[in-house]
């Protein structure tokens, strides 16, 4: 089973991705074609544009992934594809491409939940054993998952409104910083004073693992408008200090909820995935939490934290090893809780 080879296809948001992964966790190739430029002028991902771009680019991404891995379709053991959740047009484009390849080459087809792909990444990168705790923090997702097997995820809690990445993006928009907002807010925050403004720490006063980030954005908006009213505009230092306060608030909320999640579920590993895991202040805060709980902190390399085909190929391999695969009736699902 270590030398089985899977093609993984991902097209649930704005990245068209294909990768070739071996059963021992070796990534032979990973192609990601980003659509960021296509959606830039609209200030967000436009589903119809995304679906068309996936349909145009998927075959090329698969061809490139095979070429970079130096293999052909005949060398594959199976095809894994994101079957949801996500923007349905894009998911359908991926599922149809995967069905075509599987039927044409006579290969098993394995449908994968996109969130399972993220959640199983620490097994691909570090060979982590079950069970472990996963904090998934991206532009679209925010949840704690207790991972017990390739198909056994317990959602402990998550955001009740915005995902943290979404909140970073909205703050950047408020402050006229470039998108995606996470990296630009982090860069500003680096030179800012996190203690000048005090922002709320939503839901920390309540038990449990749920989080909320939309109130932080509203509080930042109020501070911005107050500064503009008082000074006639925003100074560079205002922007920096607001970003620093915001980043610290997000980091402290994520850290405190992680501390509680680890205390209630004392597993040996706390892992993170998703674009927000790139933030150094957030990473450092989570690392301290893991250290204090005698757990190991794992953050996969960024290219495997954000959307990619390798995590889908790997999740497909794990399902396939359990003897599971799908038929031509595999459906694309816009919503699919783990
Ligand atoms: O996982 P991802 O690439 O895409 C999905 O949302 O599926 O995550 C993108 C999100 C964006 O909202 C972006 O602003 C955020 O991750 N992000 C960051 C940082 N880098 C990316 N947020 C905070 N700090 C960063 N350094
Ligand atoms: Zn994702």
UniProtKB/TrEMBL annotation:
Keywords tagged on the record: Acyltransferase, Cytoplasm, Iron, Metal-binding, Transferase, tRNA processing
Keyword Transit peptide: no
Cofactor detail note: Binds 1 Fe(2+) ion per subunit.
Domain Gcp-like: 26-314
Binding site for Fe cation: 114, 118, 307
CDD domains in UniProt: ASKHA_NBD_TsaD_bac
Annotated InterPro entries: ATPase_NBD, Gcp-like_dom, KAE1/TsaD, TsaD
Root EC class: transferase
UniProt-annotated binding residues for substrate: 136-140, 169, 182, 186, 279
Keyword Iron: yes
EC number: 2.3.1.234
GO biological process annotation, one example: tRNA threonylcarbamoyladenosine modification
Cofactor annotation: Fe(2+)
Described function: Required for the formation of a threonylcarbamoyl group on adenosine at position 37 (t(6)A37) in tRNAs that read codons beginning with adenine. Is involved in the transfer of the threonylcarbamoyl moiety of threonylcarbamoyl-AMP (TC-AMP) to the N6 group of A37, together with TsaE and TsaB. TsaD likely plays a direct catalytic role in this reaction.
Family listed: Belongs to the KAE1 / TsaD family.
Protein's recorded name: tRNA N6-adenosine threonylcarbamoyltransferase
Species of origin: Paracoccus amoyensis
């Amino acid at each position: 089973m270590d030398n089985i080879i899977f093609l993984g296809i991902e097209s649930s948001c704005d990245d068209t991705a294909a990768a070739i992964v071996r059963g021992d966790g070796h990534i032979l190739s990973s192609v990601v074609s980003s659509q960021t430029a296509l959606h830039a002028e609209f200030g967000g991902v436009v589903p119809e544009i995304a679906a068309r771009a996936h349909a145009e680019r998927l075959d090329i991404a698969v061809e490139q992934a095979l070429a970079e891995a130096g293999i052909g379709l005949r060398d594959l053991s199976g095809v894994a594809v994101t079957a949801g959740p996500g923007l349905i047009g894009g998911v359908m484009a991926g599922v149809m491409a995967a069905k075509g390849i599987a039927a044409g080459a006579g290969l098993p087809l394995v449908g994968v939940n996109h969130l399972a792909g993220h959640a199983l990444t620490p097994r691909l990168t570090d060979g982590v054993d079950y069970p472990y705790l996963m904090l998934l923090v991206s532009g679209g997702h925010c949840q704690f998952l207790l991972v017990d097997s390739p198909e056994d995820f317990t959602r402990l809690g998550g955001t009740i409104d915005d995902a943290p990445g979404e909140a970073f993006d909205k703050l950047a928009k408020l402050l006229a910083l470039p998108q995606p907002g996470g990296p630009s807010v982090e860069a500003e925050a680096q030179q800012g004073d996190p203690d000048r403004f005090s922002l709320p720490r939503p839901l920390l006063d309540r038990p449990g693992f749920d989080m909320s980030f939309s109130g932080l954005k509203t509080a930042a908006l109020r501070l911005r408008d107050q500064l503009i009213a008082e000074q006639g505009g925003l100074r560079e230092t205002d922007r920096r200090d607001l970003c620093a306060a915001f980043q610290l608030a997000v980091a402290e909320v994520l850290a405190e909820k992680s501390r509680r999640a680890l205390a209630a579920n004392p597993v040996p590993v706390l892992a993170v995935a998703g674009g927000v895991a790139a933030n150094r202040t957030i990473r450092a805060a989570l690392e301290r939490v893991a250290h204090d709980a005698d757990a190991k902190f794992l953050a996969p390399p960024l290219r495997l934290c954000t959307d990619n085909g390798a995590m889908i190929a790997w999740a497909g391999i794990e399902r396939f090893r359990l003897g599971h695969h799908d038929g031509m009736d595999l459906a694309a699902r816009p919503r699919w809780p783990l």
